[in-house]
Automatic annotation (TrEMBL):
Signal peptide positions (record): 1-36
Highest taxon listed in the record's lineage: Bacteria
Keyword Iron set for record: yes
SUPFAM superfamilies: Cytochrome c
Domain spans labelled Cytochrome c: 56-145
GO molecular function: electron transfer activity; heme binding; metal ion binding
Gene3D superfamilies: Cytochrome c-like domain (1.10.760.10)
Descriptive protein name: Cytochrome c domain-containing protein
Keywords for this protein: Heme, Iron, Metal-binding, Signal
Protein species of origin: uncultured Sulfurovum sp
PROSITE patterns associated with the record: CYTC
Amino acid sequence: MRSILMKVTNFNYLGDLQMKKIIIMTALLASTSLMATETVDENKSVDANTSVSVSTTKINGALFYKKRCSICHGENGEKTPLKGMIPIASMDASALARKIKAYRDQDERHGAYAIYEDSIVMQEATYSISDGQISAIATHISKLK
């Protein structure tokens, strides 16, 4: 009985490391799932060459902007992460949506990474967001002053 108790209470170093890895991975998974709480109507599509999607009503663009964009662009879109860039506040929603999609897809046609050196940062920031989320963000930014 004593040997069983010692095995249960005596954790080895490798076991502790594995447990820490599991806890960290679980925490990361939980945090990423919290970031994806916005709902998207997948039946509605967004054409990058047209105006902003109607499905933006289900996504809170302001909240999404605050979580994903405000750290570099400021609470009201007034900051510029790099010298020479213009603030994004009050930009045209359609043009901005096309540019964000171009960053996500690394599409040179809209000057997303041909003009600025921030393409790696923006690609990392946008790789996982849907067209509907981009439309909601762009609509929100276009209303900022």
